[in-house]
Amino acid sequence: MKYFKVTLFILSLSIFLFHVFKLVYLWTDIPERIAIHFTNDIPDNWGPKSILYIMPVIGVFLWFLIGILVKKPDKLNYINLTEANKEIQFSRTGKVLILIQNLSFLSFLLANEALLNYAVGIDSSLPFIISLSLLAFCFIAPIYLLIWASTLRR
């Protein structure tokens, strides 16, 4: 599990540092007012460019918040938890939480990357599609874990 955690951490940190570098590098090219909401690919709400700092901050906050849960998987609720299977349930839940922690963080960063790209006139569809895919996986992983746990014997 440690290798899994370290690998995802390095990936998340690398993408975060790249995004922050790109945000700082392109700051002067970003207009003072940027599109922050779209309807049918048409911007319909505008805000200050400083809003580009909100999603990375929310992502970091969420990463730390989920990190608290990762450290204490025994405090969560489980289905069919017994003395015989508690270690494997705790282990799998920890892996799923680490996955959700990093994928949700990356989802926020990539959505912000799409917003940044759109603001400076670069195609922004790929980061946004990846962001939505990662977010969907954050919902699918716990459902898989729930189905797996429900098949365990009591």
Placed side by side, the strands forming the largest sheet appear as: 1-2
Q: Mind describing the biggest β-sheet?
A: 2 strands, antiparallel
Instruction: Work out the helicity level.
Output: 55-70%
Radius of gyration: 19 Å
Would you write up a description of this structure?
- This protein has 154 residues and is mostly helical.
- The chain has one domain (2-150).
- The protein is built from four helices and two strands.
- The chain has helices spanning 2-26, 54-71, 86-120, 125-150; strands spanning 33-39, 42-48.
- Helix 1 runs parallel beside helix 3 (86-120), helix 2 packs antiparallel against helix 3 and helix 3 packs antiparallel against helix 4 (125-150).
- It is elongated.
- The chain starts with a helix and ends with a helix.
Secondary structure elements and their pairing?
Blueprint: H1 2-26, E1 33-39, E2 42-48, H2 54-71, H3 86-120, H4 125-150
Helix pairs in contact: 1-3, 2-3, 3-4
What's this, in brief?
The protein is mainly alpha-helical and 154 residues long.
